[in-house]
Design brief:
The complex is a heterodimer of chains A (114) and B (114). With 114 residues, chain A is mainly beta. Chain A is built from no helices and eleven strands. In chain B, strands 2, 4, 5, 6, 9, 10 and 11 form a seven-stranded mixed sheet that branches. Classes of the chains: A mainly beta (114), B mainly beta (114).
Amino acid sequence: EDKVVQSPLSLVVHEGDTVTLNCSYEVTNFRSLLWYKQEKKAPTFLFMLTSSGIEKKSGRLSSILDKKELSSILNITATQTGDSAIYLCAVPARLGGGADGLTFGKGTHLIIQP
Amino acid sequence: DTAVSQTPKYLVTQMGNDKSIKCEQNLGHDTMYWYKQDSKKFLKIMFSYNNKELIINETVPNRFSPKSPDKAHLNLHINSLELGDSAVYFCASSHTGTAPYEQYFGPGTRLTVT
């Protein structure tokens, strides 16, 4: 069974700090790894990493995939209070031809204090 | 211009009742999903539909039945509601194909069974 483990489960830092969130995975047939941010409502898509795209960056957020170590990190620099959220890591789990459901980790609850 | 929408946003009902949650996407995606997020914020795939066919059917009770009238809609019907069904239910959609695609989530439906 595909598995995703995130650490830490919660993290409290001060505004301006840099944080690194971790995700490790076990999948039968790796195709991609996705990062989502969840505030009060729906998870919103951040990045998708694949064998051909192991680094992604958007503003203060960046993510790297390490296929050897079966892991990924999400970095946030110069954190702001608006970064407070649950960050979710997921991998597609293909159990039949066609569609992939996502297997999620338990998330990292990040709190940025002013 | 809502991409993935769900109705209702909140649903409070008594044990034993039957209820439905509706989902619509206007992204032109060919696959839709239902996820359940429990009180500990753990997101788990329930179903996916690709071109009106059920592709993944996780080990959920058969009281839950997804219905897709067309590619843009995926409704979730729940019979004989139980206390343990209380959760937030998210609909999502994506393209499918040989390349991996990200999934986009609706705002969620908070179901409370009393």
